[in-house]
Specification:
alpha/beta, TIM Barrel, 8-stranded parallel barrel, 11 helices, about 15% strand, globular, binds ligand LLZGTKA7
């Protein structure tokens, strides 16, 4: 059954990779009325911080704070507590930080919820292997043996054991992750490139329609929308393609 416009838009996370809040607000204005998720990454957060998250929430957006925490458990616990207080809907950390780090993040979430019972529990997901990583990078540069998919599945298993809600991976790995962890275990997939667009620094890519066809829960799209000559048209075309699957 094909998705409605709203259902497809709800599965689209737009990566607001901008150097300042003004430029990000410009894109939000352009996309007004499209009920997509907004993703705030390190570039925008380091520049405009919690205030910009509040702007997005006040405009009714679901917000994924993509800061990819990776530190000792105590530090990540504190970071998770602070992030939860911002009222974001989803945030993430690197599965490579290990089981204790991932459980510490959940303790941080719980502590924030106990501080303020009006807060909603955010979804917590783990980055497996970055979508810019290819087989060569993994084995020769980073020195991790085995295939990219094996590594992704090992991190997904660890994240699930630690009680997380899902993982960030390439759409190419969605079926294997869902097969191993179950369909309720969420996949959030960057590395999305509409047919004919530049892959740039992304290595493990699929088109929006192919990614939805693999059964992913959310696709993350940055430059194919933000760098398009008509970002609204680009977003609408991506949503239409998602609907066809
Ligand atoms: O493995 C990962 C994890 C996060 N990202 C983020 O997604 C967007 C993708 O942007 P594009 O411009 O569509 O390439 C970006 O914010 C990354 O930080 C990822 O690409 N891969």
């Amino acid at each position: 059954m094909s998705l409605s416009f709203e259902q497809a838009a709800n599965k689209l996370m737009v990566a607001l990779d901008f150097p300042d809040a003004e430029q990000a607000k410009g894109l939000i204005q352009t996309l007004e009325g499209i009920p997509c998720y907004m993703k705030v990454g390190m570039q925008l957060f380091y520049a405009s911080g919690p205030d910009f998250v509040k702007v997005l929430k006040s405009r009714g957006y679901s917000v994924f704070l993509d800061l990819k925490m990776h530190d000792i458990p105590n530090t990540v616990k504190g970071g998770a507590r602070s992030i939860t207080r911002l009222g974001v809907d989803m945030f993430n950390l690197h599965a490579a930080g290990g089981f204790k780090m991932m459980t510490a993040a959940q303790e941080g979430i719980q502590a924030a919820l106990e501080d303020d019972s009006s807060l909603k529990k955010p979804l917590l997901i783990a980055v497996t292997q970055l979508t810019s990583t290819n087989q060569e990078t993994l084995n020769r540069e980073i020195g991790i043996p085995g295939s990219v998919e094996q590594s992704v599945l090992a991190y997904a298993a660890l994240a699930q054991k630690a009680g997380l809600d899902g993982v960030v991976a390439s759409p190419l790995e969605v079926q294997a992750i869902k097969g191993q962890c179950g369909t309720a275990f969420m996949t959030v997939t960057p590395g999305i490139r509409p047919a004919g667009s530049e892959s740039g620094d992304q290595s493990r890519t699929l088109t929006p329609g192919q990614a939805i066809g693999q059964g992913t829960d959310y696709i993350v799209v940055g430059r194919p929308i933000t760098a398009a000559s008509d970002p609204r048209e680009a977003a609408e075309q991506i949503i239409e393609e998602m609907r066809q699957e």
